[in-house]
Amino acid sequence: MHFEPALQPATLIKRYKRFLADVITPDGRELTLHCANTGAMTGCATPGDTVWYSTSDNAKRKYAHSWELTETQRHHWICVNTLRANQLVREAIEAGRIPELSGYSNLSAEVKYGTENSRIDLMLQAENQPDCYIEVKSVTLLHEGQGFFPDAVTLRGQKHLRELQSMAEQGQRAVLFFAVLHSGIESVSAAHHIDPRYTELLTQVQKNGVEVMCYGAALSAEGIRLTERLPLVTKSLNG
Length: 239
Prior knowledge:
Low-confidence stretches: none
Number of strands: 15
CATH topology of the largest domain: Trna Endonuclease, Chain: A, domain 1
Strand content: 35-45%
Structural class: alpha+beta
Number of domains: 2
Shape: globular
CATH class of the largest domain: Alpha Beta
Number of helices: 3
Largest sheet: 6 strands, antiparallel
Radius of gyration: 18 Å
Strand order of the largest sheet: 3-2-1-4-5-6
């Protein structure tokens, strides 16, 4: 994924109302950006960090600028636009960079499924083999090299685990895909200290056939792409 037109830098003043952030540009202008991230963004939105933002030419948008990346004062790169995760995974699958998800002839997005009124992020299909349901999650919460998901209690995420388990029990392939969009993260774990129920469910669904994949990414102001597989570890913050 290449950013075109090029992203522009600014210094973060503050994030507020979840979806807004004020920044100051290198020439001293103050802008309000849209922030497409509903999470806590712990460690990703520290005042003084460098924000990289895109600009839309859609005249109907109230806020033309979107917060895409954070370059922290510790020199980590983070993709804070959670809408990018699905795009990156789709792009990597289509380019053949995820061998575990190769061999399918059709890829669909946002397909209705399950019993809890859900939409699967990506579905892979091919003749003479089970459908593959892929739920994508963006991982950006860092602690001492360890990435954690979620960064806040997520009832929606718990629902997705139940839906994936149901697909696996029906003989389909079910995949939870952690797109690790923080350059400082070296491995991923469920955040037991934040959402213990999610951790319990994740352990349960893995025993019942749900696959879990974690992939890191190369991030810069020029673009992002998924790279190598990272380990999933069963470890709590204090464990």
